């Protein structure tokens, strides 16, 4: 990775707002000195330093702690462009995925809950450490959601989110 002190000579980072500012003013294609751009496909802010694109949240972690993160960096509020340091925490991949929202294909309105036609019941399941865990079948989506949230809290702790 790039030396953090070298990065600090190019950028200022405000841990309260999560905004990065170029020290030497606006770049060639920009009218502002705010660093980086949001990747439309993923929603994360990238900043190119020495011709290398770096995720802004990883850069925020490194500039604040003095070390590059070994694991993922999770956005607590799930806003991928909120790089305020209080909104960031180091997480395993599994913990980070535990803090994800509803999939776009979700029809139940609850994370981890879907209607299981063969049984005519609502099914709850969760993925943890790359393995799918079947929680059970329930008469209502609310009951399945309640079981999902209890299991998520057990497996993910503070990283579990209510759907």
Secondary-structure element order, as H and E? Answer: HEEEEEHEEHEEEH
Query: Globular, elongated, flat, extended or rod-shaped: what is the shape?
Result: elongated
The computed structural class is alpha+beta
The averaged pLDDT comes out at 90
* CATH C-level of the largest domain: Alpha Beta
Low-confidence regions: none
Count of structural domains: 2
Number of helices: 4
- Amino-to-carboxy terminus distance: 36 Å
Tell me the CATH architecture of the largest domain.
Alpha-Beta Complex
Specify the biggest β-sheet. Answer: 3 strands, antiparallel
CATH topology of the largest domain: Homing Intron 3 (I-Ppo) Encoded Endonuclease, Chain A
Can you give the helix content as a percent range? 10-25%
Based on DSSP secondary structure assignment, what is the total number of beta strands? 10
How are the SSEs ordered, and which strands pair?
Blueprint: H1 4-8, E1 11-14, E2 19-22, E3 37-38, E4 45-49, E5 52-55, H2 56-65, E6 72-75, E7 88-91, H3 93-98, E8 113-116, E9 121-128, E10 131-138, H4 141-156
Antiparallel strand pairs: 1-2, 3-4, 4-5, 6-7, 8-9, 9-10
Structural commentary:
The protein has 2 domains: 4-91, Homing Intron 3 (I-Ppo) Encoded Endonuclease, Chain A (Alpha-Beta Complex), CATH 3.90.75; 95-159, AP2/ERF domain (GCC-box Binding Domain), CATH 3.30.730.10. The protein has a 3-stranded antiparallel β-sheet. A 3-stranded antiparallel β-sheet has the order 8-9-10. The chain has a two-stranded antiparallel ribbon with strand order 1-2. The two termini are 36 Å apart. It has 163 residues and is α+β, with helices and mostly antiparallel strands. The longest helix is centred in the last third of the chain and has 16 residues, at 141-156. The relative contact order is 0.12. The protein has 4 helices and 10 strands.
């Amino acid at each position: 990775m790039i030396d953090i002190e070298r990065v600090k000579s190019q950028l200022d980072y405000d841990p309260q707002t999560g905004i990065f500012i170029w020290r030497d003013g606006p770049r060639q294609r920009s009218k502002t000195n705010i660093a980086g751009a949001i990747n439309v496909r993923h929603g994360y802010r990238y900043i190119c330093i020495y011709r290398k694109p770096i995720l802004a949240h990883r850069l925020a972690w490194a500039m604040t702690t003095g070390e590059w993160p070994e694991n993922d960096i999770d956005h607590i509020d799930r806003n991928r462009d909120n790089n305020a340091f209080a909104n960031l925490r180091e997480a395993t991949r599994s913990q980070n995925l535990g803090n994800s929202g509803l999939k776009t294909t979700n029809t139940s309105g609850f994370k981890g809950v879907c209607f299981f036609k063969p049984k005519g019941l609502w099914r709850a399941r969760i993925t943890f450490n790359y393995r799918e865990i079947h929680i059970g079948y329930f008469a209502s989506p609310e009951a399945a959601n309640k079981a999902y949230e209890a299991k998520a809290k057990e497996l993910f702790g503070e990283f579990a989110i209510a759907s």
